Amino acid sequence: MPPSPPAVRIGVAGAEPATPSAAPALRFLLDIEADAPIRALTLTTQIQIDAAARAYDDEARDRLRELFGPPGTWKPDLPGLLWAQTVTHLPGFTGSTTTPVTVPCTYDFDVAATKYLHGLRDGEVPLRFLFTGTVFYLDGARLQAAHLPWDTEAEHRMPVAVWKNLMDRYFPDTAWIRLERDTFDRLHAHRTRHSLLGWDDAVRSLLETSES
């Protein structure tokens, strides 16, 4: 009877800025253990924000209303948000190893995960890591491959400050929104017509008009 595939256990040791990097990214460190030698591992990692796994004060509920609705209508089982999915190719190891998983980060407010991360002032981001992939191991002299099931999971509570500090490094005191070209042309015309120096001035003038 052929030996069973190695049992693989994965934990998340922490998160740090990915450096050097031309664009903002976080590097999550995975601790991987196996009960038999691994010849190679192709690992698919899906990272979800488990929004229901933390508490929210009134300010956070108000800032997250676009995602979850008005504060008074929230239900205990908030939906999870997909943040990223990556594929990592690991060389062989015996016993345990550590590998980084790099996740590009965006300040695009059309992305639900960005809206959520920006909406939190402090505390922790509850993350759920779902793993699958292919484990390569030896059965005697023969190379075998086995599927790593999706129920291989790990949890990690990342400090909100880790993401905010990364955004501050790449986008100090700024945020980004995407406009349709027609809207941009109208904003540009408004800026030119009123001899406004910058885009902030153009937007502020419109906000002041609408709020007066």
Number of domains: 2
Helices and strands, in N-to-C order? Answer: EEEHHEEHEEHHH
Taking pLDDT < 50 over at least 5 consecutive residues as the criterion, the unreliable ranges are none
Strand order of the largest sheet: 4-3-6-7
CATH topology assignment of the largest domain: Immunoglobulin-like
Mean pLDDT: 91
Annotated CATH architecture of the largest domain: Sandwich
C-alpha geometry: elongated
Q: Structural class, please?
A: alpha+beta
In percent terms, what proportion of residues is strand? 35-45%
State the total count of DSSP E strands: 7
- Number of helix segments? 6
The helicity comes to: 25-40%
Rg, alpha carbons: 23 Å
Q: How far apart lie the N and C ends?
A: 80 Å
CATH class of the largest domain: Mainly Beta
Largest sheet: 4 strands, antiparallel
Description:
- The structure is a single chain.
- The protein has 212 residues and is of the alpha+beta class.
- It folds into two domains: 8-178, Immunoglobulin-like, CATH 2.60.40; 179-212.
- The protein is built from six helices and seven strands, in the order βββααββαββααα.
- Pfam families: DUF6084.
